[in-house]
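Support request, priority: normal
Reporter: lab tech (M.K.)
Component: structure prediction queue

Hi team, I submitted a job for 65-kDa microtubule-associated protein 8-like from Pyrus ussuriensis x Pyrus communis yesterday, and the status page still shows it as pending. I've pasted the exact input below so you can check whether something in the sequence is tripping the parser. The sequence length should be 595 residues. Please let me know if I need to resubmit or if it's stuck on your end.
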Amino acid sequence: MGSFQTPMGMRSSTLLETSCGYLLQELQMIWNEVGQDQFEREKVLLDLEQECLEVYRKKVDAANTSRARLHQELAEAEAEFTHLLLSLGEPSLPGRPEKMVGTLKEQLDSLTPALREMRLRKKDRVNKFRAVQGQIQKISAEIAGQSEYGDLSSNIVVNENDLSLKKLEEYQTELQTLHNEKNERLMRVEKYIDAVHNLSSILGTEASMVITKVHPSLNELCGLAKNISNNILVKLNSTVESLEEEKQKRLEKLHYLGKALTNLWDLMDTPYKDRQSFSHVTGLLSLSSAEVSDPGSLTLNIIQQAEAEVKRLDHLKASKMKELFFKKQNELKEICNKSHMEIPLQSEIDNLINLINSGEIDHADLLMSLDQQISRAKEEASSRMTIMEKVEKWMLARDEERWLEEYSRDENRYSVSRGAHKNLRRAERARVLVNKIPALVDLLITNTKSWEEERKKTFLYDEVPLLEMLEEYNVLRQEKEEDKQRQREVKKVQSQVVVEQENLFITRPSTSTRRTSSRTLNGGFSNAIPLNRRLSLGLQQLGPNSVNSAPQGISFIKEGKKVHRQKMFARPGLVSHLRDETASVVSTVSGPQSP
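Reply from support: The job had stalled in the queue. We restarted it manually and it finished. Here are the results:
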């Protein structure tokens, strides 16, 4: 109370000094002058005191209200600050005192800057969350195919109770994942679009129309963000697959047409320059669908042109069927002639020609039949190749054998002339080859029998059974050997007769008799004397430098005589003629000796 009264006393002491005190004094003077009673005076003073109390009470209430508001503002600021710290995920704010000191206004003023900083941080964090969530919603909408429905950022709701950096990182991670998925989808879409462009260029179609048909946003001319939804990816995949199927169908069609063109060209011997106009079609025969990449290589126009060309060649083939038939027939004959096989009968060929003229036979079937015959002929020629090679060697050996016989009959074979040494070397080689003939013939017989057993048919050589030819050759060779043996015997008899006649000629002293004998001998041994002359002539031609080789030359002469006799005795009646001649010579020589 003392503390309260002291200010009141001070106020009352100074009241007179104020306008209130002056007014109260003036009021007392008025009451004194009027004669106002004391009761009225006290009542007025009491009213004045009550009115002053009311004024003071209002001022105190206002002060209490202001204090309470400051307490509330301070509490709310502290709560908001604490909430901001929790929502932002930060333990404290640097620079803020841990304990609040001073008056309420001082405490509030010290907290206000930190609170303002936290609010700014919250606002910045909320903007970051809104931006990240907006991008997440936008990319999610693009992936879902809703990018054309406008901006969805107005629908973003940020949870302000959790604005921590950890939550922001989670959103950023989600956003990065969506970015990766979007990029992957964009790459897939671009890959599909490139595939559509490539396939369309190959097939000759308009790529922009195909892409726009899938979705307008995929066409860059539309200026829209590309739709990368699952539905669009599925449509793009199905579009590419359909284009691949169309590419495969067209390639198969061109393969068929290319093979048909090649077959028709080969059948009709089409010139190379005429084939060049469709080289782009035949060039596809060895390529698979994945290897075809040239623009415009599978257009419908190319297929139509190839179909028209095949149709034209089919008509041309029908008109040239007879020519093709003769070509195939000549090919078959050439194969048969080359391998010395049996050639089809002319009557069968005439029947086929009649069928071609009448149109009663299918051209394709006829060509297929001829191709099959040619294939069988080639296969049989291949199986005969080993035997035919040996037959050729045998024929060559027989030619050399005949040449050697003719060479042996040549009286001037040992003369010193141009080419004589070459003939001598050839004769040596020919004798070696002729000596191999029996073994070669035996091997041929064995191989031929094996071939015939395997094929169940006769091995013909120029329509003659090869085994009969070989057996006949063996028989002739055996007869030739027997003729040689007989020639040796005849020569031996001739030599004996010549020796006897020469002895008789030497022992006769009479000149007339000698002359008669000489004339008789010259006439009777006209076949023997030239032989001795040839022998002496051959030795003279060899010269003095060939003394060492004389025995070899004599052996050549003997073999030449042997072959010559073989040829001579090969003629009919020659052996009997020589026998008669020998008998006449003997009778002539012995005639004058008889009494």
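Residues 38-88 form the longest helix (51 residues). DSSP finds 20 helices and two strands in the chain. Let us know if anything else looks off. Ticket resolved.
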